[in-house]
Amino acid sequence: MTGESVSGRSSAGGTESFVHRYVPAAAGAPPVTLLLLHGTGGSEDDLIPLGRALAPGAGVLSPRGKVLERGMPRFFRRLAEGVFDLEDLVARTHELADFVTASSVRYGFDPHNIIAAGFSNGANIAASLLLLHPRLLRGAVLFRPMVPFVPPALPDLTGVSVFVGAGRADPLVAPAETERLVTLLQTAGAAVIVHWDPSGHGLAAGEVAAATAWLRRCLVTPPPGSYTTDAQ
């Protein structure tokens, strides 16, 4: 499918509709689709500029979270800061996976070449997608993620590439929490790169540039291992 972006809803697969935007890949661009997942209070439009920076010309699928917290959209409920409603998280993760699969049919993009890019709450549900639907995503860019939950049995994430962007001064996500998620994903077989930035919870230009360079390499061939970098 080519042309301008499409805004709308999808109700395929028995799930409730998601407000979303879809932007088809530009002619000659890598046939990858970015699944953009906003943070608390965001919308389907928030991460479009980030997606264009990460992978110029790539297709974009950007849904709006359906859970409202004091009027702010999220992808799943939480009981308190950093305390997730796990039952809701699991149900919403399955629902999002159904939406992505149905969207690949509706819009005609490759269901085997999807990379999630999420920030904060969006990064957390992207991590949950990796754990519950390990074959849905080819890879993920996770900015300021936490461990969504620890499954009783880890999935096989061999061949899946993950970029984690973390802030050394993040008041919401402690470094130990980032490291716990990285260990969890590595143990499941994912190839993980961690980029530490001296910033807080907000995105910094340096880590977006690092994620862009990583994603460019990832589109050619997945990285062979896991490693860590620190912004200077």
List keywords for this structure.
232 residues; globular; 30% helix; nine-stranded mixed beta sheet; 13 strands; single chain; two-stranded antiparallel sheet; 5 helices; alpha/beta
Structure description:
By secondary structure, this protein is an alpha/beta fold. Helices cover 30% and strands 26% of the residues. The chain has 5 helices and 13 strands. It has helices at 48-54, 86-107, 121-132, 175-187, 205-220; strands at residues 6-10, 18-23, 33-37, 59-63, 67-69, 72-74, 78-80, 83-84, 114-119, 139-143, 161-167, 191-197, 227-230. A 9-stranded mixed β-sheet has the order 1-2-4-3-9-10-11-12-13, sandwiched between helices. Strands 5-6 form a two-stranded antiparallel ribbon. Strands 7-8 form a two-stranded antiparallel sheet. Helix 2 (86-107) crosses helix 3 (121-132). The longest helix is centred in the middle third of the chain and has 22 residues, at 86-107. The chain is globular.
Radius of gyration: 16 Å
N-C termini distance: 42 Å
Based on secondary structure, the structural category is alpha/beta
* SSE arrangement, N to C: EEEHEEEEEHEHEEHEHE
